[in-house]
Amino acid sequence: MFKRWDELTHRSRKWYEFRQHYIMGPFKKIAALTPWYDQNAYAEFLQRRDETFREWLPGSSVLELGCGPGYLSAIFSATYGTKTYVGVDYSLGMVRDARSQYFFDFVNADAFYLPFPDKSFDVVFSAYLFHHLPPKKRSLALQEQARVARRALIIEETFGFEPGFWRWPYWAYYTLADGSFYRYTLKEWPEIFRSINIRLKKLFFTQERTILHRLICMVAEPIEGGRDPVG
Ligand SMILES: C[S@@+](CC[C@H](N)C(=O)[O-])C[C@H]1O[C@@H](n2cnc3c(N)ncnc32)[C@H](O)[C@@H]1O
Q1: What is the total count of domains within the chain?
Q2: What pTM does this model have?
Q3: Which residues contact ligand 1 via a Cβ below 6 A?
């Protein structure tokens, strides 16, 4: 049932924005009132993300996976000087809405099976895609990203709580409000990369205890010689 909610709210830009404003918005306002939320930690994260984009994006060909309504296409080009941009989303409605709004390439495809040859893009980026992918298939998606990347993978995501009390209210929040899957913890993220032999170059995150904006950003190297057929 909650998975269907996830699918419904990713069917078009209109549904996506409805969910952001009217469902997640109120949860976020409450979470921002908790004593652990630190606006400075969030601002610092955004600054480090900006530095990361400035390091990797200028002059690069960029593929964005799970691009949704395509918000980042114009920002990547105008602010970070990307050479080319292609957005991929498996929601036909999102791709249709992105195409109607921005003059970039948007392709309807699945992050697990990308219709591009090995090393087609300098940078392969995704933001908030992985918590919508079934955990068992996430390594496959990471390997697929690494296959089509020439220089780097950049992944922006949310992270979950370690086992303990807070894991449960957080689980209830993302299941009910978002309909999405399990979020890897700060310990699990690097383990996943290690398990498929992708080397992490950089990792930073907001704060371990915060409820709002539990954000992590990772930069990884592509796989030399393409994907391991066994993995
Ligand atoms: C939370 S939205 C993020 C959208 C955008 N990146 C942003 O930050 O606003 C996740 C997006 O991933 C897409 N998505 C989910 N599973 C996918 C898959 N297997 N392949 C490609 N896109 C997928 C959804 O359709 C949705 O647009």
Answers
A1: 1
A2: 0.94
A3: 10, 65-68, 71, 88-91, 94, 110-112, 127-129, 132-133
